[in-house]
Design goal:
alpha+beta; five-stranded antiparallel beta sheet; 9 strands; disordered N terminus
Length: about 500
């Protein structure tokens, strides 16, 4: 028997704790973060799964508005816009037009409406072949979401609570990645240690019962969805309130920002601009005003420059001294988001942006967002996102079921042992703390709470150790020689 100081049972326990400190830390983070943030992740998963199916839902619910009566060649945009203006009958001019992307689809003519929420326009759906008005609906943002999709999108993004609700989605997106990474670390540790049960970590063992059955399903489902969960976390953060702005600034600082189209006309006539191309507008070409024939004219010019997609949006000048914009809005693969700015008075191209020239980070950001929203690859991606959302929701439910199964007869189940970092070397604690702070500088709702957890766990471990020493010291004093003689005296 080794009788050297610190090498008895206590020393062995201390050595084991030092070797397994990181696993204990991951287990505690996975448990507590999952327990506290689980409801937010569950809501985000359910609403996100519904959002993945909204393109199909839209085609069913709004089939009348989205479908033309025939597939005959369309009338000029001017005629379609005039029909929409006559229907609105307010003297307003369109703020954007989306020509029918394919035969059998309708054209959207969009108007500003002060009675609608911010970033929402009133869309008139026109049959291109007959100029018949097929519908009148509000549409939201650059995605052109119709009411059902917008309602589900707002639920997913903010729980319909406005700016305050955005904190929920940032919390869910941020901590989904942390919980997934911690769970992945625990799974890898079990896989390495296990020799006979590795197959059970990839698919649940149906012979298991009770807690082991729940744990088996949790582990198996988790490893199949972990990469998707990390992807959704990373791409979801780009829309968040705090971290999203930091990510955008970071991308711009390293040359990965998304190029923007310059619509200013100042100096365009005098200098021609870096991208100026005079295309010889005909004498009858409209002179810059947002009248219906101008839409046809600028679209024809854009098609000769870089616009070759059927999914296009045409926007008149947003303010005096700015250009018309024709932009591709095709977000499935291959991505087509080229754009061109045109001086409506001279029919001169003053700027252009081509997706092919985007920096790699900008392209990856674009593809990541489109994959997250289900627009990339169409229906197969939407089905995959729905299945992924179901898997993440199942993990949350299984996690709570495991917690409930292990609860004592009364009260709640305890978390993994407090003071997970007690046996860690100083450099291990310091590394975790530094990494957490660095993460917090970009992802404040992840890094700073994680750093606080590390500090709290170390302090609780230190306090628990001092309390244990005091208890042992007190017990030793009460059982010493003096105590024995007092006991004998008392007995006499």
């Amino acid at each position: 028997m080794d009788t050297r100081p610190g090498r008895g049972a206590e020393g062995v326990a201390s050595g084991a704790g030092r070797r397994g400190w990181f696993t204990a830390f991951l287990r505690r983070v996975h448990f507590l973060a999952g327990l506290l943030v689980g409801p937010f992740i569950l809501v985000a998963a359910v609403s996100g799964g519904l959002y993945a199916l909204t393109p199909v839902i839209e085609r069913v619910v709004y089939s009348h508005e989205l479908t033309a009566t025939s597939s005959l060649p369309g009338m000029p945009l001017a005629d379609q816009i005039e029909a929409a203006e006559a229907y609105v009958d307010s003297g307003a001019t369109p703020v954007a037009v989306r020509p029918a992307p394919e035969p059998g689809a309708t054209t959207r003519v969009m108007f500003a409406d002060d009675t609608l929420p911010e970033s929402t326009t009133r869309a008139i759906f026109v049959d291109p072949a007959t100029t018949e008005v097929r519908g009148d609906l509000p549409v939201y943002g650059t995605s052109g979401a119709l009411p059902v999709r917008h309602w589900i999108s707002d639920l997913h993004r903010s729980l319909h609570l406005g700016a305050l609700g955005r904190w929920y989605s940032e919390l869910a997106a941020s901590w989904l990645g942390i919980v997934a990474l911690a769970g992945l670390g625990l799974w890898i540790g079990r896989f390495v240690r296990s020799r006979r049960g590795r197959r059970d970590l990839l698919r649940p063992n149906r012979s298991h019962r009770g807690y082991r059955r729940l744990s088996g399903w949790h582990s198996a489902v988790g490893i199949w969805v972990v990469l998707g969960a990390l992807f959704l976390s990373a791409t979801g953060i780009t829309w968040s309130t705090f971290a999203g702005a930091n990510v955008t600034d970071l991308r711009a600082a390293i040359g990965g920002g998304t190029p923007s189209l310059d619509t200013s006309l100042e100096g365009a006539a005098a200098h021609g601009g870096d991208h100026a191309e005079h295309l010889g507008g005909s004498p009858s070409a409209p002179a810059g005003a947002a009248n219906p024939p101008t839409f046809d004219a600028v679209l024809a010019i854009a098609k000769r420059i870089n616009v070759d997609s059927g999914d296009v949006e045409i926007r008149p000048p947003a303010a005096p001294g700015t250009a018309w914009v024709v932009q591709e809005i095709h977000r499935s693969f291959p991505t087509e988001v080229d754009a061109v700015a045109i001086d409506g008075a001279t029919m001169e191209v003053v700027d252009r942006v081509d997706f092919a020239t985007f920096p790699l980070l900008a392209k990856l950001s674009r593809w990541g967002i489109d994959l997250h929203m289900g627009s990339m690859f169409g229906l197969p991606n939407q089905v995959a996102l729905f299945a992924l959302a179901v898997g993440i929701a199942a993990l949350v439910v299984l996690g709570y079921a495991m917690w409930w199964k292990r609860r004592p007869t009364r009260g709640f189940a305890a978390a993994p042992a407090r003071g997970a970092l007690r046996g860690a070397p100083w450099w291990g604690v310091g590394t975790v703390l530094v990494v957490a702070v660095l993460i917090g500088s970009v992802l404040p709702m992840v890094g700073y709470p994680l750093a606080a957890f590390v500090v709290l766990d170390v302090l609780l471990g230190w306090w628990g150790r001092r309390a244990a020493v005091r208890r042992v010291t007190g017990a030793g004093l009460s059982s010493g020689p003096g105590a024995s003689s007092r006991s004998r005296s008392s007995a006499r």
